[in-house]
Amino acid sequence: MTELEKQTEEKIFEAATDVFIEKGMDGARMQEIADRAGINKALLHYYYRSKEKLFDAVFTIIAKQMLKRFAPVFDENLTLEEKIRFYYQQQTDFMKRSPRLPLFILNEVSRNPQRVKNVLKHLDHTNLLKILEEQHGDEFARYKINRETLPQIMTSIAAMSIFPFVAKPIIEAIFEKFGTNFNEYIERRVDFATAFTYNAIKSREK
Amino acid sequence: MTELEKQTEEKIFEAATDVFIEKGMDGARMQEIADRAGINKALLHYYYRSKEKLFDAVFTIIAKQMLKRFAPVFDENLTLEEKIRFYYQQQTDFMKRSPRLPLFILNEVSRNPQRVKNVLKHLDHTNLLKILEEQHGDEFARYKINRETLPQIMTSIAAMSIFPFVAKPIIEAIFEKFGTNFNEYIERRVDFATAFTYNAIKSREK
DNA sequence: AAACGGTTTAACCATATGGTAAAATTTTAA
DNA sequence: TTAAAATTTTACCATATGGTTAAACCGTTT
What we know:
homodimer; DNA-binding; 2 domains; mainly alpha
């Protein structure tokens, strides 16, 4: 029973995750979630009182999973270059497995910006900044990285890793014309992005 | 009459554009489009037989507008660095005015990848490659840009310019914690991205 | 002015959707 | 074993939605 309960709740959650990621909040249908979970609609509402609640549960978990990917960047004992590679590697691996996930998150966050604040609530920014500056103070100085350029660099790194998956259908369609293969492109992406990013940063040294 | 017709059709089109961009295909309601256009639902179906048809009309126009932004990169008589700056400038200006547009396109294309092929149908890729290689053959050689690295570079440039707007709510929420202002960040984005990109490319020179 | 063609409206319709009530079934505790 | 508690199902409801029909309106032509 507790076992079965977990099975049922788990099944519902997995089905809901799939459907929400695939169709978004608006496009998802409670009936479809129920069907995929192998139960009926009323049971869905028994476990999660409303579509909104179910969505919130799914979204929160997924967003946190995604956020976790960024954590090692702060506590690993690596050089800046190694850290950049590590981030690209982690992020790319993750998105190869769940390619629709980033667009889903961007989309739902954009439709309800409040959501992101809930997920970030427990993020300690003062601590993160301190860690980064302690670990890489010398490199920051050498490459003139400060509180103005750091956001530019970090969003650029995020962009370079996430965007290809978000724009996959467009990129694939263009590549098709030019005879390029998307999977090969992705395979080389980590190496390219690491070199590209680190070279760009290094060249800030006067 | 023909005048009024155009006015009405125009009003419908503008209202539909706003609603679709704001809510997406699934979230948009025909009633809301009618309300915003100041007409009723039946008139909507008189001009555009179905929601699908209306959406297609809106999407096609918008996607083509977006695509046009890329054109000057190929026929302007500029150096590679100038071209990069020019692209970032154009794209950023455009998205400052229509910040929801890129996410809308990415989203709908992802839900129906066929759409992108329709828009790209008349794109002459052989010609584009030729132009680029003629105009920048020397720079391509110097910086070791070939048919394998060119896609990496171009998607990186697109990513760096588009991603900040697509992820705006997330970036804003994080910036808020760190005391950074999104608009100031965007103001500096063109300069930063141009330097970042061109430095990364230049450093490919051995 | 009457007929005509395009335009607009009000009133509908069928269906899909999120959600609920209450009965039936199963599980747990006594 | 039996009563209670939890779980699952059947049958429903109210509302929203995309779409249609038929009549009214209005400017143009004859």
